[in-house]
Amino acid sequence: MRTIDHLIVGQGGGGAGRTADVFDPNTGRVQASVTLGTAADLDRAVAAARGAQPGWAATNPQRRARVMFRFKELVEANMDELAHLLSSEHGKVIADAKGDIQRGLEVIEFCCGIPHVLKGEYTQGAGPGIDVYSMRQPLGIGAGITPFNFPAMIPLWMSGVAIATGNAFLLKPSERDPSVPVRLAELFLEAGLPQGILQVVHGDKEMVDAILDHAAIAAVSFVGSSDIAHYVYRRGVAAGKRVQAMGGAKNHGIVMPDADLDQVVADLSGAAFGSAGERCMALPVVVPVGDKTAEALREKLIPAIDALRVGVSTDAEAHYGPVVTAQHRQRIEQWIQTGVDEGAELVVDGRGFKLQGHEEGFFIGPSLFDRVTPAMSAYKEEIFGPVLQIVRAPDFETAVRLPSEHQYGNGVAIFTRNGHAAREFAARVNVGMVGINVPIPVPVAYHTFGGWKRSAFGDTNQHGMEGVKFWTKVKTVTQRWPDGAGAGSGGDLPRGS
Ligand code: NAD
């Protein structure tokens, strides 16, 4: 059995401690075992980070950027291997796995420009003979705690910006698909990153708590489910750290009566069911405005859902693969039952799906609910599976209110040909990321990613300039050089007027 161990400087092979199973969701079999670390493991990593960080911070930003350039080349050269490894632990299809890596690489591309981004502000003559300038300095040692659903992109969101800005970074990836984060860290070392600047510590709550309590860790970035995000935020902040903690989501897609329904259905096939719905920017709620729109949409959605192909993650024709674990599939099926019990109409039932030849794999068919209402818990909570819910809205005002009043506020989309309606919607909706005829409005790497309400705790987003702000602190210098200050040290310097 393969063992996935920490990547800590000077760490030997796996200890005798606790481990967790890593499955192949296609077969349902355990394919590896991951070490679950302790506070002592973390201490070793922190000691190495502490030793390495000052030298890295003193390395000029252009040289730090060169490591980013080389890393990007190495990841591109290893794309196929990484995508297969990712897919074999997560269950997303190869094209999605490549997308996961590619979106992370785009943050690395942003980091290649870090010298430019780190230029501070300068005011000459803020007072008589006084200049003021600011600089952004690294925090020291930062940590990232990441979810299972984007095992390449999210570790790169955090590690790329943290490292490029001169910090040492400790990554605690999801214990469900930990191999790709380790491979990425190895590639960073191959790209010339000094030992100790990026280390990977595996584990569960025990390791997360050790990170949150460790006095030498200045900042923690977390992405995962909301209850844990809130916990991480509270405990980390109580320990005096800078914390950003992204949580769950329940994104809505508003369909106006004038929308191009064929386009909407094509978009929903990807946005609601792609990656088996295991995306924080999935679109699991569709809100047609008016009953006529609802009926027309439903009529087009049913055959489109029937046509979705569920297959093993290496099947190039498959629309989506298995979900990550058997427990997660069970949880999704329970939510479907809850929806039925609460009175929603289950139009397509994906439960009980078996893939021939892979009966033990964690597969689940796509499901469609109609007549879901805001009072239902199956609407209020995140299902994180291939389940699409239709919530009918009588008018535009209701459609704006639904996502605005939902506990989550990660992403939202509106489908319309009416620019005024779209503009009003974008301005008024109480959600952090908005798509206009774009179903999954994940901002590009040089913008910034972050939701509102229970989708994010803390006040700084991931990547882009917000990421740079999170991983650095500002120092502002007010300087005055009075005439004669250098007396005796520079006789031939020009004298002041
Ligand atoms: P999760 O909350 O179970 O796990 C996230 C991380 O927290 C993992 O590293 C895990 O080891 C750790 N963890 C788990 N239980 C813990 C506990 N009791 N105490 C401390 N740490 C603990 O999330 P997941 O299932 O891996 O990922 C899916 C969730 O992540 C979904 O809710 C999804 O919406 C969310 N997500 C959000 C974003 C975003 O940017 N808002 C992006 C991706 C995923």
Notes on the protein architecture:
By secondary structure, the chain is of the alpha/beta class. The protein has two domains: 2-247 and 457-474, Aldehyde Dehydrogenase, Chain A, domain 1 (3-Layer(aba) Sandwich); 252-445, Aldehyde Dehydrogenase, Chain A, domain 2, CATH 3.40.309. Helices cover 39% and strands 20% of the residues. The chain has a seven-stranded mixed beta sheet with strand order 13-14-15-12-11-17-18, with helices on both faces. The chain has a six-stranded mixed beta sheet with strand order 8-7-6-9-10-20, sandwiched between helices. A three-stranded mixed beta sheet has the order 1-3-2, covered by helices on one side. Helix 7 (179-190) links the parallel strand 7 and strand 8. It is globular. Bound molecules: nicotinamide-adenine-dinucleotide. The site of nicotinamide-adenine-dinucleotide (NAD) has 26 residues, from helix 8.
Topology of this protein?
Layout (H helix, E strand, L loop, with lengths): L1 E3 L14 E6 L4 E7 L3 H20 L2 H17 L1 H12 L3 H18 L2 H4 L4 E6 L2 E9 L2 E5 L7 H12 L3 E5 L6 H12 L7 E3 L4 H9 L5 E5 L2 H13 L3 E5 L5 E4 L5 H13 L11 E4 L2 H16 L19 H16 L3 E4 L18 E4 L6 H4 L6 E4 L5 H10 L2 E2 L1 E5 L3 H10 L4 E4 L15 E2 L2 E2 L6 H8 E9 L17
Parallel strand pairs: 1-3, 6-7, 6-9, 7-8, 9-10, 11-12, 11-17, 12-15, 14-15, 17-18
Antiparallel strand pairs: 2-3, 4-5, 5-21, 10-20, 13-14, 16-19
Keywords: NAD, Oxidoreductase
Protein name: methylmalonate-semialdehyde dehydrogenase (CoA acylating)
Enzyme class: oxidoreductase
